[in-house]
What we know:
The protein is an alpha+beta fold. It contains 5 helices and 7 strands, in the order ααβββββαββαα. The N and C termini lie far apart (69 Å).
Amino acid sequence: MIKDMLKKDSGVIRLLLVFLASCNINQTNNIELNYLNTSKQIIGTEDYNRIYNKSKDSINFWVINMCNSYIKFSKTKNYFLDSLMCFNSNKDRFVCALLEIDNMDVANSDGITVFYGEEIKSNWYFFQGSYFIIPRETYKDQNIHTPLSYQQLHQAALKNIYSGYLKNGQINEAWFTEHFEHIGWGDFNHQEYDDWCFKGKRYSDISEYYKATHLCKVKGNWASRDTTQPLVPLPAKNLP
Length: 240
């Protein structure tokens, strides 16, 4: 009798767990769809796809030309630009995620790099931000020496990168300000004369100051490549 009750109870528990898991998946899918639809409504589907493809081409171009931190992608890591790009109301900034899979046998984690885009004087520029380590051991039944999948990293990006995009259903502009103008990009209120990036130049407009720091980041990426070697073009199939 008791054994039969336990069997029934365990069956109910399993059904409840399946139901809760299904609710979580559906909730996550709804959040992602809401982010994507909002972003495409702001920038337009055509421009969304154009900027996304330009971002991918830029990353691939930096990889094959061994630029700065992109060198690792030609040696030990695979990389994917996340499918979701979150644009601001002014249509001149986006936040995305570069999903990084470590192929080394001894690796026990993968990672996500915040990937930014900003339109400055009618041109789009792309640059990296913070890096998040994603330990494989945090996933149930995951072999720590088996890389996480795109989908696993994508879900991690939804939780860790994109979660501040909307606030009460509206684009959270403070979230973009925090990403693009925080102290890690430089201190507008304490501009140093010997700052290597500005070489003594002073800015009175905070927006122009941070745009300059972002351009400096982009230039630094290109300056890191071996200039004794010719530029390697993208394969024809990858060209816009």
